[in-house]
Amino acid sequence: MDNTLVDAPTISRLKWRCRRGLLENDLFVERFFRRHESTLTVGQVEGLQLLMDLADNDLLDLLLARKDPEGTLDQPVVREVLAQMRQPG
């Protein structure tokens, strides 16, 4: 996993990419960025992008721990980002 920090323009584009159709997902994403924006690494961005490729309901199932990552999502970087996103309040 690449631990290089991500620059501000990349984070700005990523935030736009992470906008979701379900408010519940947006709340998880906003909290994630509030906590981790200044320390995001290239590897974490890759994991986040994989999660953002999901349909809204599938993403929500992962965020609420109704399901665990499977297939191409069953990677340490995805699990790391998912754990960060699941951290309570």
From TrEMBL:
It is found in: Cytoplasm. The keyword Chaperone applies. It comes from Ideonella livida. GO terms for biological process: succinate metabolic process. One of its GO terms (cellular component) is cytoplasm. The keyword Chaperone applies. Its main location: cytoplasm. Keywords: Chaperone, Cytoplasm. Gene3D superfamilies: Flavinator of succinate dehydrogenase. Belongs to the SdhE FAD assembly factor family. This is FAD assembly factor SdhE.
